[in-house]
Design a protein that fits this description.
Vanillyl-alcohol Oxidase, Chain A, domain 3, disordered N terminus, Uridine Diphospho-n-acetylenolpyruvylglucosamine Reductase, domain 2
Length: about 500
């Protein structure tokens, strides 16, 4: 059973049972979502408040979707995020089923100055899609993708997952850049950047956004495009969730054949230095059709470590053979899985079979034309531990991403040839403190080779670092923030604080 169905059945089990009983009264149905008491909560500035029972009941009555309170069926499922080390307890969870519910939830949050988190796919490594004591707006019931093949456009509801977009678009021989893990939320990925297997060819996910519908902090639904609210349109493309909740994305689509060349070249960990040297030169200088990741990993336990090149070539088979020929310089791998493969299937290749099964700590940074020094730092500092998955990986950039001016969207990091990540993963429920400490220490040796970081993939940067990371776009972002969220209702993100 996939994630969406598990969540649906878990959340709605009690209601489904009630609806299956034709003689159950409306009063009995009301008890499933009834509010029995006042609700203790916190504001955005972490002040304790009490939401009276009548106000919370009015919120529940105003929703077509669900209001879930602590202790209710589905609460523990709804509050979870991908990173199992994040364990937060919202005071209320709203699951909207449409734009009206999103507006109702935002109005309630603003009127009570509530700490507010917005969850789409729950992939925020730092846990910003949940909160302690505030309101979590969970978009998992706001999922739908519609494609117009003649116009080459897709419209995706704000809570949709990337796999839904791939599935619907590819059915018409069309694609857009959509990450590398199919159960990632479209909203979080796109608003912060949106790297993916086709980004070198078609640009970032945000480069393919032609319009959004967004509920801003005043509860109003606004359309933002190049012609309507252009400042907001500029800001959401790289400014993350700072300005509101996007309820619909309009994406440009591109023709592409369904079959691509993809898979891995796998080498022993002992060859990491050699493979890194090759990759850092090869990846960024490749044609736009060729996307390559490098993944260096040592699983927990006694399993051997490996370093591998993950490939997606979206051109013809003949082009792929020619463009991948330089890999032969590395000699025979332990294993090669390179083959003709369905693109949508390749997009699921990195999916988690149990997407809430481990704790994770991650650090990331952009790299421009890396040299041998960073290779030495990577290999010398890589210290496996039998109690964790230890991983260092690169995602190639460049190509079409780099051909967009740094100020054309709020995303400024067009100079990057690669994104570098290091992560530690440990079993859910285990103490992750020593693994987090190792990752922080390791990253200190790698960070000098980086310039800025990917806001979608960061854990604990301070406010000054966040401001600097927006580079020359920060001042303009703050102007957009002042206009659309002057009280900083939407602060659980790579936050742009209002100027006042």
């Amino acid at each position: 059973m996939n994630l969406d169905r598990r969540r649906f059945f878990t959340h709605s089990a009690a209601l489904a049972a009630a609806l299956a009983a034709p003689r159950l009264s409306f009063a009995a149905l009301q008890t499933l979502t009834g509010v029995d008491d006042d609700v203790r909560a916190v504001t955005g500035d972490r002040r304790d408040i009490v939401l009276d029972r009548a106000s919370v009941s009015e919120l529940a009555d105003a929703l077509r979707g669900y209001l879930i309170l602590p202790g209710s069926a589905g609460y523990d499922e709804a509050r979870q995020v991908l990173n199992a080390s994040i364990d937060k307890y919202p005071a209320l969870i709203v699951q909207p089923t449409g734009v009206a519910d999103v507006r109702t939830a935002v109005d309630f949050a603003r009127e009570h100055s509530l700490l507010t988190a917005v969850k789409c796919g729950g992939h925020s490594w730092s846990g910003k899609s949940s909160c302690n004591g505030g309101l979590q707006i969970d978009l998992s019931r706001l999922r739908h993708v519609r494609v117009d093949p003649q116009a080459r456009r897709a419209w995706a509801a704000g809570g949709s997952l990337l796999g839904e977009l791939d599935h619907e678009a590819m059915a018409h021989g069309l694609v857009t850049t959509a990450g590398t893990v199919s159960h990632t939320g479209i909203g979080g990925l796109t608003l912060g950047g949106g790297f993916g297997r086709l980004a070198r060819r078609f640009g970032l996910a945000l480069d393919n956004v032609r319009a959004v519908d967004i509920v801003t902090a005043d509860g109003q639904l606004r359309h933002a495009s190049a012609d309507e609210n252009p400042d907001l349109y500029w800001g959401v493309r790289g400014g993350g969730g700072n300005f509101g909740i996007v309820t619909s994305f309009e994406f440009e689509l591109h023709p592409m054949q369904r079959t691509v060349t993809g898979g891995e070249y796998i080498y022993p960990l002992a060859r990491a230095r050699e493979v890194l040297d090759f990759y850092l030169e090869f990846g960024a200088s490749s044609p736009d059709n060729l996307y390559t990741d490098l993944i260096m990993m040592k699983p927990p336990g006694d399993a051997p470590g490996i370093v591998m090149l993950h490939v997606c070539h979206s051109g013809s088979a003949a082009e792929a053979e020619k463009d991948l020929a330089p890999v032969e310089r590395l000699g025979a791998p332990l294993q090669s899985t390179i083959r003709a493969v369905d693109y949508v299937a390749l997009q699921r290749a990195f999916d988690y079979s149990d997407p809430r099964g481990s704790g994770t700590y991650l650090k990331s940074g952009f790299v421009q034309d890396p040299d041998r020094a960073v290779v030495d730092a990577i290999v010398d500092g890589f210290e496996p531990d039998p109690a964790r998955m230890t991983m260092l990986f690169f995602q190639v950039a460049g190509g079409a991403i780099a051909r967009v001016p740094a100020d054309a969207t709020a995303f400024p990091h067009r100079y990057a040839t690669h994104t570098m990540f290091t992560t530690s993963d440990w079993p859910a429920g285990a103490d992750g403190s020593k693994h987090m400490a190792y990752t922080r220490a390791y990253w200190k040796t790698l960070e000098p080779y980086t310039q800025g970081y990917y806001t979608n993939e960061t854990a604990d940067e301070g406010q000054q670092a966040i401001n600097r990371n927006y580079q020359g776009n920060f001042a303009r972002l703050q102007q957009v923030k002042d206009r659309y969220d002057p009280t900083n209702l939407f602060r659980l993100n790579a936050n742009v604080p209002p100027s006042a």
